[in-house]
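Tip: read the tokens left to right.
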């Protein structure tokens, strides 16, 4: 696995009344990416932000916007999120009728492509597309709400994906999202993860010391 660990704080745990300030603070604290969860109340049972909010946040930071689309049908919204300022657009194979077509739609927007697996989703859903994407997002909770408990059973799947990436000598990143804290972050890295998404831990531990929490996650 890559020894360089990137931290992508999830703004789902930020204070939405001062979202712009939170994003600026994350940049100052050393975040690598800014993770933005987009939910439609249909593909997952929750609603979050849309492209207009991303568009307002975009001028505030040069950090990579790591946008996770939990929306269906996803193809209808790729252009909107691309134009709003997403740098990486991640989708779920269950949210499209043609995975390769969705990958190409994102590439046509000159954006990096991510593909995500829910805890119960099988590797077979993405196996044929690993060399076509830049990032694979492993969900370690059921997508929909922040603050859930980490599901360690997804680490077996993570190890298998890391083996495939290494065997094919690909540069594909493996990202994990869901219930990540200082303890289980180490397990995730050992399984082959090199991008860690964390919300509650970054925003709430150590009296909300963002810089300290990012550093502990990076080095734990």
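Filled-in amino acids:
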């Amino acid at each position: 696995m890559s020894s360089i660990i990137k931290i992508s704080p999830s703004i789902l745990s930020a204070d939405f009344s001062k979202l712009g300030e939170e994003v600026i603070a994350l940049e100052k604290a050393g975040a690598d990416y800014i993770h933005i969860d987009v939910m439609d109340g249909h593909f997952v049972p929750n609603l979050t932000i849309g492209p207009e909010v991303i568009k307002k946040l975009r001028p505030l930071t040069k950090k990579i916007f790591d946008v996770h689309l939990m929306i269906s049908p996803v193809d209808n919204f790729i252009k909107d999120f691309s134009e709003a300022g997403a740098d990486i657009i991640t989708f779920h194979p269950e949210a499209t009728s043609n995975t390769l077509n969705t990958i190409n739609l994102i590439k046509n927007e000159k954006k990096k492509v991510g593909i995500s697996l829910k805890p119960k989703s099988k590797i077979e859903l993405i196996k044929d597309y690993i060399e076509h994407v830049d990032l694979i997002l492993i969900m370690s909770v059921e997508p929909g709400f922040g603050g859930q408990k980490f599901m360690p059973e997804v680490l077996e799947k993570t190890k298998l994906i890391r083996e495939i990436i290494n065997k094919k000598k690909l540069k594909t990143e493996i990202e994990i999202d869901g219930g990540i804290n200082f303890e289980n972050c180490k397990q995730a890295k050992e399984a082959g993860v090199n991008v860690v998404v964390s919300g509650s831990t970054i925003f709430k531990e150590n009296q909300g010391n963002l810089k300290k929490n990012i550093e502990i996650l990076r080095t734990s």
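The longest helix spans residues 154-167. The mean pLDDT is 96.
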